[in-house]
What we know:
alpha/beta, 6-stranded parallel sheet, 2 domains
Amino acid sequence: MRAAQLDKAGDPIRIVDVPEPTASAGQVLIKVAAVGVCHSDLAIQAQIPGMPPVRHFPLILGHEITGYVHALGEGVTGFEIGDAVGVWPGWGDRTCVVCRSGYEHLCPNIQFPGVVIDGGWADFMLIPHADYLIPLGDLDPIVAAPLTDAGLTSFGAVSKILPLLTNADTSVIVIGAGGLGQFAIKYFKALTPTKVIALDIEESKRANALVIGADHAFDSTEEDIADKIREVTTDKLGVTAVLDFVGIDDTLTLAANVVIPRGRVTLVGINGGSLPFAYGSTQQEVQLSTSTLGTREDFAEVIRLARENGINVNTTHFDLEDVNQALADLASHKIPERAVLIL
C-alpha cells in the first residue's frame, strides 16, 4: 500500500510502498478516506520542542483520520464492513490510573498515531481497539477529517470552560482565530449565551471570526487592547475566560490582565510562552490550565455537533502524492482553514 513517510527529522515526506496490515483479535483495519494536514505535522516533521517524542523513524504521519471499516478482527462487535468512521487519536496504555479514570488521551505513555507511532497518511490503517472509532453515520469522511483533532482539541478546551458561561453577562476571549479558534467560536455560540471576543493579528481572520459568530474581533497587538476588551464586557471589568490557541508570552500576559476573579485561562497553543504564577499574578482565584485533545465522549459530541449543527470548517484538498505541497502551503499560510489529504 502507499504511505507518506518521514525518514528522519527535517526531511521531506516520501511516498513509499509498505505492507498492508491485517487485523488481529480485537483490532479493526480501516480503508483511509481522508487525513488532515495541520501545523502539528510541521512541528513533527521538524521535531520542534513541545511535541511528544517520535518512537521510531521512518514514521508515517497523519493524525486527523477518517475512513471505512475494511476488516474486523476476531471478537469485534458494533461495526460492519463499509461503516464510515472517525479515529479518536488518544491512544494510551489502557492500564494506568490516568487511563482508568477515563482520560486515556492524557496517558504518560500516550501512543498518538501519526505523532509518536505510525498514523494515517496511508491507504490502510490498523486500529488497535474498536472503541477508538466513532461512527460518522451520514457525515462525509472528507468533511469530517478535521474534526478528529482540530475539532476535538478545540472542543476539549471549550468543554472545560462551558460551566462558567451560563448567562449573557459572561464573556470569553478566543486568542487565535485560525483552524482551532474557528471551531471554538462556533462551539461557544452554539452552546452558550456568552459574548465571544476573537483576537487575531490577521485582518482576514478577524473578519471571518465575525462572520461565523464572534461578537467582537480585535488585533491583539494594539497598544490599548486590554482597555478595548474590558470596554465591551459586563461592567467593563474583563472577561470570564480566555482560550489561548497561540501560547506566547504576550498572549498569556494579556489573558492574565483581562480575566476577572474566579475566571479561567486555558492554554492550547504550544509556542513556548509562559506566565509567572504567584499570588497576585492574576485576579483572585483565577484557574490556569492547559488542554490537550479531548475524551472519547468529547469526540462523540464533536461528531454530533457536526451532524446536527453543521459545525465544521472549509477544507482545501490534496492528493496523497502532493503532501509536501500541502505542508509548504500550510507553512506559508496559503490554506485559509484546514488542509486534507484525499486517499
